Amino acid sequence: MPTNDKKRTLRFDFGLTAALCVVFVAGMVGATFAAAPLYRIFCQVTGYNGTVRQASVAPATVSERTVTVLFDANVGNGLGWSFRPLQRSVEVKLGAVAHATFRAENRTDWTVTGTAAYNVAPDDVGAYFNKLDCFCFTEQTLKPHESADLGVTFFVDPSYAKNVDLATTSTITLSYTFFPAPEAAPKPVASAGTPAKAL
What is the pTM of this model? Predict the structure, then answer.
């Protein structure tokens, strides 16, 4: 028969083990919720996995080397929009600021809010592709059958030319996919009429 001291020790050990398990599980749950936003921030800072970087100012120098930027537009399930670039590509010098415009149209009979995910290909270019301004930084809301022209202002860092792995890469693809914004439910419209398109 275990003595009282041994019983107290066993109870203490069991309680300590249970407490450590609860702390571990709570930590893992917290890490799970934090992983996605932390990973997104890491990708935006480093350009990892083709994630475009956000910049506040353009470079002071412009290189004579040029690259061709192709534009790709997609729509996720459940959004009910059409979405396309107004130009298929643009040729830019490294360090020069460029602009592209996309057109989004809500083809439904209710107001819809969308959010755009983006990346560039090939993946290694993400560290050099910088956005000064972009429609993808905020959610976009379109009324029934409304259209909007959405712009992105960007540059490719001149240090791109120093990367020997990109010496033969002269084409970059900037790709967007619009998805329904989280917790954004469609809002029915009372009027049966179709409003004029707003551009």
Answer: 0.66
